[in-house]
Amino acid sequence: MPVVAIKEYTATPRDRVENFNGKQIVYASWDRHLLFAAPFLLCLPPETPFGELVKGPLSMLVQPDPDAAAIDWTAVEWLKSNQPWTPDFNASLAANGIGHKDQLRFRTPGLNSLAPAA
Questions:
Q1: Which of 16, 56, 75, 92 is most buried (CB neighbours < 10 A)?
Q2: From CA 6, how far away is CA 99, in angstroms rounded?
Q3: DSSP code of residue 104
Q4: What is the DSSP string of 21-69?
Q5: What does the pLDDT look like over 48-57, one tens digit per residue?
């Protein structure tokens, strides 16, 4: 929805990549797992290997979910910008085309205990 202002809008966004000291924001969410009400917000260097994102912060953040221990990260279905996508776990976020404020979604078929498939 466009913004309609009554006068010229001159604010400078504070969430520009230049303001994160060499890091970038990446959003990640687990489809059909309603224990998490919003995407996780991660602040990581673009050089972070994708596999480190998964093994480190993402794995730790999803642990409260009863399905977390059963995740087979090699079988996860990934979406980037709402499109099916296959990450390279050995490549960096930047090499995987993950930029500032990009959102990643992941699905775990068969692990949908909190929001069963319709």
A1: 92
A2: 33
A3: E
A4: TT-EEEEEEETT-TTS-S-EEEEE-TTSBHHHHIIIIIHHHHTTSTTGG
A5: 999 999 999 9
pLDDT in tens, 98-114: 999 999 999 998 887 66
Q: Which two tokens stand for residue 61?
A: 């953040």
| φ, ψ dihedrals at 28, nearest 5° | -140, 135
Residue 58: per-residue pLDDT: 97
Is there a contact between 28 and 56 (Cβ–Cβ < 8 Å)? no
Q: Say how far apart CA 2 and CA 37 lie, in whole Å.
A: 26
| Residue 59 tokens, joined | 């794995």
Enumerate the domain spans of the chain: 17-107
DSSP state at residue 70: G
79 is written with which tokens?
């979406």
What's at 73, amino acid-wise?
W
Options 3.40.50.720, 1.10.10.60, 3.10.20.560, 3.30.70.270; CATH of 17-107: 3.10.20.560
CA angle (71 as vertex; 86, 23 as ends), nearest 5: 55
